[in-house]
Amino acid sequence: MQQRKLGPFSVSAISLGCMNLSHAYGAPVSAGQGERVLLAALDAGVTMFDTAALYGFGANETLVGNVLSRHRSRFTLASKCGMTGVDVAGDGKQVRVIDGRPETIRATCEAALKRLRTDVIDLYYLHRWDKQVPIEDSVGALAGLVAAGKIRTIGLSEVSAATLRRAHAVHPVTAVQTEYSLWTRNPEIAVLQACRELGVAFVAFSPVARGFLCAELQDVSTLDAKDIRRSMPRFSPENYAANLTLLPAYQAIAQEAGCTPAQLALAWLLHQGEDIIPIPGTTRVEHLEDDLGAVNVKLSADALARVDALINEKTVIGSRYNEQGNREVDTEVF
């Protein structure tokens, strides 16, 4: 597996986002299936695994810890704080809460270390900036965790270039994680440039556009009732039908390049810069193997130009998040 630099670490050029195994796209997979995917990724050369306290309200960190802790020396471990499940009503039902207060960050980290069965988390992200808390305070708490040896490096997720610069002034930021793919170009406005100026790696989540660029999801009515894509404007029946019209030409480019649609999406990202590390997620080993094959896809300048012109912020219909989701992120928008 090709390697890319992420702060002090060298990680696989394509790493694994673990969210899908426990969260967001319907019912979580069985523990056995999750173990198969995680171990297959490790055996295939994946050396960074990305999880979060939010995913399955701790269940994903537990899964990763149960399966991978015995192999801890073989990979870089990334997790996130600042957005967790909280029993707000006292009825035992957890709801998603953004909370960047220093005391919450410290408590979340202690719980994560136990679930992950490790003494230290290599890369710990602030999952969302809590806009009720100065970014300097949240990053200061993360810096305290570095000093205490609980985490090794600090990351931020879904932040603007301005917020990144404020945070970096408090403590060096190792990575920014934000959605980036052919159909989500927001990082290109300012964040990618800011990352490069500051020497910050860029980790791209949802690099195959939440499945759209795999060209397999044709009917959004088949999505699970709890699938988060049902609340995303791009996946509304009307918008998705319009977006599907982009796929025949996209699939033709993939065929010409000798790769699958998912590999084309990932290869396009890899070609955008050596500082970009995609973290696709999957629940199936065969999809994992397909994704990892993208490291061997070489795209011509013509293919890159054609796919770039075909799928971008001007040709895709619908916002990536609904109104609430857009309020919660801190990224520049087209």
From TrEMBL:
Residues 14-311 form the NADP-dependent oxidoreductase domain. Transmembrane segments: none annotated. One of its GO terms (cellular component) is cytoplasm. One of its GO terms (molecular function) is oxidoreductase activity. Residues 1-24 form the signal peptide. Its EC number is 1.1.1.-. The keyword Oxidoreductase applies. InterPro entries: Aldo-Keto_reductase, NAD(P)_OxRdtase_dom_sf, NADP_OxRdtase_dom. CDD domains: AKR_AKR13A_13D. Keywords: Oxidoreductase, Signal. It comes from the Bacteria. This is Aldo/keto reductase.
